[in-house]
Amino acid sequence: MTDPSRRPVVLFVCVHNAGRSQMAAGFLTELAGDRVDVRSAGSVPADQVNPVAVAAMAEVGIDIAAQQPKLLTTGAVRAADVVITMGCGDTCPVFPGKRYEDWDLPDPAGQPLDAVRPIRDQIRDRVGHLLTEFLRNGTETPPPTRPLGTH
Q1: What tens digit of pLDDT does each residue of 108-141 get?
Q2: I want to staple 53 with a disulfide (CB 3.0 to 4.6 A). Which of 19, 26, 64, 122 is the partner?
Q3: Does the active-site annotation cover 14?
Q4: The domain that contains 130 carries what CATH number?
C-alpha cells in the first residue's frame, strides 16, 4: 500500500544532465517546493551544468549554478514515480508500473542564450502542466502511468 503522505519522486533525464534536465529540475523545485522530490541525471553526464542554461535560468530568478551533473542509475529510475526523458532514448531503463514521458526538446548544448530561452520556456510550461496534473489529482501523487512518448 502506498503511503499517502509520501512525496512523489520525479526524475528528469537527458544525455549530459547539463541543460534540459537541470532546467526542468530547477523549475519543478521552484514551483513545487517540498511537495515533490525532484531529481535529475544523465546517461553520459557532463563535467558541469551548461553555463548558458545557468544564465537562462538566472534570467527567471532560478539559480542552478551549484548543481552538478549526475550519472543515471537503475536505482534512481526504480525510486522515481515519474521519469521524464529528454533525448536519452533507449539508455533509460524501463520498469513496469512507472510513468514515463519523453519530452522532445532541442538540446541547448552549444547554443547561444537567444536560442536557449525558448527551450527554457517550453520546459517551464511542461513542468507547470505536470505539477497541475499532480495537484488536480486530489493528492500529490502522480497521475496513472502512460506509455513512453505520450503526452
Answers
A1: 999 999 999 999 999 999 999 999 887 776 544 4
A2: 19
A3: yes
A4: 3.40.50.2300
